[in-house]
């Protein structure tokens, strides 16, 4: 089976948020869809291993902020490659509260939902939510798609994402001299930097770790 076909399907990149008691928490998701228009209802798929899953279950509400192409890509590293159980993901994030749920600014906007039903699969819970609030932020670019994230941002999917492919590979690029460039792989999020050497003081644009967390692999 060619699992790469799933990348041809249309996905967005979203920050799903809720509360852990009174503390904001959340994760990255790319499988969200509108189910009905009246009343407006959406479905979101969250891995059982994501801390956000249990928090949505307890809170009964969730929101999702729609990443823009010009949103800070570090948001993906923050929300996609760390656990809300161990880290305060909103500590350095510009956000506001909407209907009692945290939503992230400098995105295309947000949708807030109350959980009305759910479906359990082997690995994920599909939460059905009735929309109770929504807002579009002005001044942001196009919504980020899953394809844009992979092809332009060069990011990898978190291992708990519904669309995660176990073997995600990139081809080595040719250097100006005609040889293969060195591929430097972030050991935290899988971001790939290709060049002759990592620049001094380089930090991963996805998860923010330093050059010491990259491993070189000659192509």
Mean pLDDT value = 84
Helix content: 10-25%
The CATH homology group name of the largest domain: Electron Transport, Fmn-binding Protein, Chain A
- The name of the CATH topology of the largest domain is Pnp Oxidase, Chain A
The CATH architecture term of the largest domain is Roll
- The number of distinct structural domains comes to 2
Termini separation comes to 27 Å
Number of helices: 3
What string, H for helix and E for strand, traces the elements in order?
Answer: EEEEHEHEEEEHEEE
Q: Mind explaining what this structure looks like?
A:
The protein is mainly beta. The protein folds into two domains: 3-151, Electron Transport, Fmn-binding Protein, Chain A (Pnp Oxidase, Chain A, Roll); 182-218, Rubrerythrin, domain 2. It is built from three helices and twelve strands, in the order E-E-E-E-H-E-H-E-E-E-E-H-E-E-E. It is globular and about 55 Å long. The two termini are 27 Å apart.
Feature tags:
single chain, 3-stranded antiparallel β-sheet, 2 domains, Pnp Oxidase, Chain A, 219 residues, mainly beta, Rubrerythrin, domain 2
Give the arrangement of secondary structure elements.
Blueprint: E1 14-20, E2 23-29, E3 32-37, E4 40-47, H1 51-59, E5 61-66, H2 74-80, E6 95-98, E7 101-104, E8 109-120, E9 124-136, H3 146-151, E10 182-186, E11 192-195, E12 214-218
Q: In brief, what are we looking at here?
A:
Helices cover 10% and strands 37% of the residues. It has helices at residues 51-59, 74-80, 146-151, and strands spanning 14-20, 23-29, 32-37, 40-47, 61-66, 95-98, 101-104, 109-120, 124-136, 182-186, 192-195, 214-218.
